[in-house]
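Propose amino acids for all 62 sites.
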């Protein structure tokens, strides 16, 4: 049946499983780094725009 056909695919050796976890862990780490870089860039853009607005308002009051 279907279970018998999937059984050879689902049989992992310990070395194969460790290798799979290492490769997938590295890929996840690289993608997470990109996400954090984009998040930090967005925060810096918002902070920069806010600082410019504050400076502009202070210079208009003088």
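Proposal:
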């Amino acid at each position: 049946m279907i279970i018998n056909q999937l059984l050879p695919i689902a049989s992992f050796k310990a070395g194969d499983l460790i290798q799979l976890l290492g490769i997938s862990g590295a890929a996840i780490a690289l993608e997470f780094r990109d996400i954090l870089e984009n998040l930090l860039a967005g925060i810096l853009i918002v902070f920069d725009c806010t600082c410019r607005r504050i400076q502009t308002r202070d210079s208009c009051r003088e």
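The chain is about 90% helix and 0% strand. Helices lie at 2-10, 14-61.
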